[in-house]
């Protein structure tokens, strides 16, 4: 076959990278199947028996057994598929089939170390089994490449999520890049329409929800047709410190409260808007980040901050824009060295008490937020305005680069 307009180097490099990418996807699918299909789980289950929560192996014997039953067959499956990839290239793109040896050689780079670990050659485990190394986690779970905190969750948070071994793409596509099952999630602004919808969809995703509200009422949720009261905690602006004890037990904090003074521009309106929209959220964020200490906190704790589309677009309410932009920029600044994952939630106009003419429904918006979080999207954008999808990443990139250059830890 002729690929005349393309430079052969580009084709060769693409095929080397493509063959490696392909075997990585094969690895992750093999892992998913190992969990779904019980004959394979009988083997793979050994991998889940090896480690203690601090990632030290229970015993050398079990470590070696698990390597024979999981790592070695996994690399052989990858090897087989890398040969199929090469065979396909040999038939269809015979001029370029050599490049697909990249994938074959790459899989052998997993097969031989696996044999080394299975037979107990000293040091091979420390040099080649990088996602299972014990020791303190230095960064939160990574977004695109699997690091130790990312994989730790597959062992100790939820075995039916976080399947990926090197690239996180398969988990992102399956919605298993973040598991909400059993997690304690506290949502502020719980009396509002979005707050209630978020609580509902978080509950559906298996989370234990806590409603944080400044109103004097217990929040109820429609769960399977029944109106059930949920754990509701009353708090007040300026008294965020009182929530410190609660935050110790919270896995995910969703900062979703806010006020819109619309056309007001008095001194009181300015003070109120900054206090509620910016500083109370920022204080809560800082109090929560102090609760991130152990490896399990670094791996599982998260903050989601609803900063709004007003970060880049007019909201026809100057004080809403100013205060939400400041909050957005503070989150960008703190994300640079936060000990856990911080997600931004950027929403377009949805129907609520703050905005009765919104187009999207709060329920639909909440559902999308949960879906995108499960795909581990770090800046969650739900809007009907296509400009936001372009403007937010550009703004985030330049602002965070600027902050990185002109500030230090
Ligand atoms: Zn593992
Ligand atoms: Zn597994």
Task: List descriptors.
single chain, 9 strands, about 400 residues, binds zinc ion, globular, two-stranded antiparallel ribbon, seven-stranded parallel β-sheet, alpha/beta, 14 helices, about 10% strand, Rossmann fold
Task: Give a verbal description of the structure.
With 409 residues, this protein is α/β, with parallel strands linked by helices. It folds into 2 domains: 8-174, no CATH class; 184-406, NAD(P)-binding Rossmann-like Domain (Rossmann fold, 3-Layer(aba) Sandwich), CATH 3.40.50.720. The chain is built from 14 helices and 9 strands. It has helices at 8-36, 38-44, 60-92, 101-118, 124-128, 148-156, 169-174, 193-204, 244-249, 267-289, 295-300, 318-335, 362-374, 386-406, and strands spanning 184-188, 208-213, 220-223, 226-229, 232-234, 252-255, 302-306, 341-347, 379-382. A 7-stranded parallel beta sheet has the order 5-2-1-6-7-8-9, with helices on both faces. A two-stranded antiparallel sheet has the order 3-4. Helix 13 links the parallel strand 8 and strand 9. The longest helix has 33 residues, at 60-92. The structure holds zinc ion (2 copies).
Overall mean confidence score, pLDDT: 95
The neighbouring-strand order within the major sheet is 5-2-1-6-7-8-9
What CATH architecture of the largest domain would you give?
3-Layer(aba) Sandwich
Give the full name of the CATH homologous superfamily of the largest domain: NAD(P)-binding Rossmann-like Domain
Note the overall shape.
globular
**CATH topology term of the largest domain:** Rossmann fold
Strand content: 5-15%
Instruction: Specify the CATH class of the largest domain.
Output: Alpha Beta
Multimeric organization: single chain
Number of structural domains: 2
What's the main sheet like? 7 strands, parallel
Give the H and E element order.
Answer: HHHHHHHEHEEEEHEHHEHEHEH
- The counted number of beta strands is 9
Through-space gap between termini: 55 Å
